[in-house]
Inverse folding.
């Protein structure tokens, strides 16, 4: 949603904050700003647009001081203008905020009645005025901040600094992540650990409801009950993940990392020597007692669930319901006594999915979560974790996290099937063998990159596109449409190939590219019949298939992308590679902002 940073440093804060904000820009980039403490109190620089605009202002109007806070915004309340950019400040305090204050209107009215003047349309500004009001009533800075957050309703992570108190910074989290960075007589606050890598790799993950008062050599954490609490200081890895290396975009780097990231996830979940799935370490979730599963997620993670639905029902013979998280709670699902829920989230912070997780656990149902970010909110609240090992994913469009999620879900399916007796030792060996071969198959699929880049030039001229698939390739068609539209802004639709003739085929003419996902499997012939229907109407077909599929469709007029012949279990994971490359190179041809597409954010922490 938004990225926040705070520094109590031993060197000028402003340029360091810019460096940290650049690492958080994937969280939102509608506007950015910095506040520091100078000789004359709080000074601010703010700019609409990306951090580069703010850096330009700082170059001509530098900010003094070694204490400061910064913010990069994804607008929720108030247009992305300079006046609405954080930090928000009064004469006594400056704050940055990630989240939504749900009672801000009532607070704003009360503060205006008290004579406070507001300069923005945001919900966040009330925090600065509320802290100021408590200070005017005699509270010391930290006590005033604690009193202010006690009066807030909603989700937030905040950082604030106080005029005249150069060695003091306050932070608090409720529903949005916040970490403390521990330096050498320096302290930091950040929305995630990546932002603080340039300064320190030692962090303290604040718990839900925690607040913290910092000095350069002091950390005082209070829990949600206001009691002082001890939290572990941990050393985090992954600094390298925040660099693009010699790739043009993070997204391309992350596409190319997939053989490695899938390999890491396979190694974590499988006993690769004996070709068996490790028993997931679920302290109080018994796989043999799960009789039905709800799969809940958003966006690309939801399409991973939709693919896993086929596996779970076909291999583990478990009935599955797949929901997008923002709908799940509101359809009043009726759980059975043997129900469990499985959540999938790259960030572990997506508000819709987190809210669904909380809803399920309040209903007494066990929650298993497939997560990529350790210590994320979902990581802390779920009953059992299936970790993916994709490393930090910076590109807003999810790629390596998606294939890591699928890998984990495939391994989970085998474990569940084994627990229910539907997967024999021989079948388990075969499925594990397929998963162990997956990284190599993905590496082979990447070899089509140049060919796809050439095809994408023509795609970039399309006004709309269709993706078709059957079976587990149908959800992959939905994911392909999402990938294309979210980074190229070309409208795209995924459709079950068998459904095309029931309406969507009206879209087909010689102008529309139709990307078909169809390896030579038991559904290939039926899909080819649908493809012939498209060809008969002039549709421009791009067929993603294996050698056998291309050979069997030799008479078809189509551009062809080849994926390696592989086990049916891993086919949809391998076919994700050309799907991702098609979107990526079409976006490159169009010159859109591949890593930070317009209107999007990497983690949507509002419902
Ligand atoms: C993926 O390309 C999108 N950026 C988006 O749909 C994303 O998958 C969705 O917001 C869920 O995010 P999460 O996995 O962090 O929960």
């Amino acid at each position: 949603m938004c990225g926040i940073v705070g520094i109590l440093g031993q060197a000028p804060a402003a340029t360091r904050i810019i460096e940290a904000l650049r690492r958080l820009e994937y969280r939102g980039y509608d506007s950015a700003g910095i506040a520091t403490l100078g000789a004359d109190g709080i000074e601010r620089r703010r700019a609409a647009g990306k951090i580069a605009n703010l850096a330009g202002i700082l170059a001509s109007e530098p900010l003094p001081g070694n204490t400061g806070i910064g913010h990069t915004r994804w607008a929720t309340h108030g247009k992305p203008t300079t006046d609405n950019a954080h930090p928000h400040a009064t004469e006594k305090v400056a704050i940055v905020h990630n989240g939504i204050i749900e009672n801000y209107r009532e607070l704003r009215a009360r503060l205006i009645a008290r004579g406070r003047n507001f300069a923005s349309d945001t919900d966040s500004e009330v925090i600065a005025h509320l802290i100021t009001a408590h200070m005017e009533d005699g509270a010391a800075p930290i006590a005033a901040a604690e009193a202010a957050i006690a009066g807030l309703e909603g989700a937030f992570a905040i950082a604030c600094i106080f005029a005249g108190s150069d060695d003091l910074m306050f932070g608090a989290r409720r529903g949005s992540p916040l970490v403390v960075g521990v330096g050498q007589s320096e302290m930091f606050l950040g929305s995630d650990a990546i932002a603080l890598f340039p300064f320190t790799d030692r962090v303290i993950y604040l718990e839900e409801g925690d607040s913290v008062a910092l000095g350069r050599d002091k950390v005082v954490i209070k829990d949600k009950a206001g009691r002082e609490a001890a939290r572990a200081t941990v050393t985090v890895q992954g600094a390298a993940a925040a660099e693009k290396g010699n790739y043009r975009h993070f997204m391309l780097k992350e596409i190319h990392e997939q053989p490695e990231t899938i390999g890491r996830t396979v190694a974590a979940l499988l006993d690769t020597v004996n070709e068996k799935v490790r028993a997931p370490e679920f302290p109080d979730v018994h796989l043999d007692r799960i009789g039905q599963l709800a799969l809940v997620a958003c966006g690309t993670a939801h399409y991973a669930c939709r693919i896993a639905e086929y596996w779970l029902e076909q291999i583990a013979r478990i009935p599955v319901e797949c929901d997008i998280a923002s709908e799940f709670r509101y359809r009043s699902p009726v759980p059975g006594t043997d129900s469990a829920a499985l959540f999938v989230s790259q960030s572990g912070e997506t508000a819709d999915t987190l809210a669904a997780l909380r809803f399920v656990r309040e209903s007494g149902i066990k929650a298993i979560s497939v997560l990529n970010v350790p210590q994320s909110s979902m990581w802390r609240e779920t009953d059992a974790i299936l970790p993916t090992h994709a490393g930090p994913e910076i590109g807003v469009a999810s790629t390596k996290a998606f294939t890591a999620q699928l890998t984990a879900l495939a391994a989970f399916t085998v474990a569940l099937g084994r627990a229910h007796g539907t997967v024999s030792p021989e079948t388990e060996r075969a499925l594990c063998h397929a998963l162990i071969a997956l990284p190599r198959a993905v590496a082979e699929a990447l070899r089509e990159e140049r060919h796809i880049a050439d095809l994408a030039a023509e795609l970039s001229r399309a006004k709309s596109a269709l993706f078709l698939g059957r079976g587990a390739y149908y959800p992959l068609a939905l994911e392909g449409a999402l990938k294309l539209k979210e980074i190229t802004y070309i409208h795209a639709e995924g459709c079950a190939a068998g459904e095309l003739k029931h309406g969507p085929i009206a879209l087909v003419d010689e102008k529309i590219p139709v990307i078909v996902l169809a390896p030579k499997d038991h559904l290939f012939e039926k899909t080819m019949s649908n493809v012939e229907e498209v060809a008969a109407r002039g549709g421009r077909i791009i067929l993603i298939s294996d050698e056998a599929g291309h050979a069997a469709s030799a008479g078809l007029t189509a551009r062809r992308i080849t994926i390696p012949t592989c086990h049916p279990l891993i086919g949809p994971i391998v076919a994700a590679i050309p799907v991702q490359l098609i979107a990526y190179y079409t976006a490159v041809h169009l010159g859109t902002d591949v890593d930070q597409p317009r209107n999007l954010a990497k983690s949507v922490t509002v419902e």
Notes: Residues 298-301, 345-347, 350, 353, 396-398, 486, 603-604 surround 2-deoxy-2-amino glucitol-6-phosphate (CB under 6 Å). The chain has three domains: 3-243, 253-436, 446-590.
